[in-house]
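Title: Prediction job returns without error message
Component: structure pipeline
Severity: low
Priority: P3
Assignee: unassigned

Description:
Job completed but the reporter wants confirmation the result is attached to the right record. Sequence as submitted:
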Amino acid sequence: MSAPAQVLAWFRQIDRDGSGTLDVFELQRALALGQLNFSLKTVQALMRLHDKDASGHIDLQEFERLHSFLINISNSFRYFDADRSGSLSKQEVWQALHHAGFRLDPPAFEALFKAYDPDRSGTLEMAEFVAMSVFLQSASATFRAFDSQQTGRITMDFSQFVYACSNVS
């Protein structure tokens, strides 16, 4: 079965109500089947990132992009897992983020890493790395929306800050 045919088959299997779209609960169950156990909040962020028509559901085309995103993140995870431990050390995460184009200063990186390492193991498992990647993609898109001059700096009032934070988390 070709890749698009396989993705279509998965989509149809996940779409339990036959609506032609996936809601957040269907997507959460599907991700769990792939050993990606996410909170509802993380699945909602993943959906917002790929729900281009802002319908609150993922259609087949959006699901294909989401699937491609997850494959890319998974490939990155495996590539940067230098010791093949099944988790990424702090240094491996730093390298992966740098490779992906995220140039965070050390305090920002430390705060980010700590936020996605809730058990304080000093490593990120695949699901934690995916959740961090979703956050960074969402944060980047929200930042770009406020950075109309593409200077890498923004100014915002408190309402805009709240709006931006609400769209990232």
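Comment from assignee: result matches the submitted record. The beta strands are 21-22, 58-59, 88-89, 123-124.
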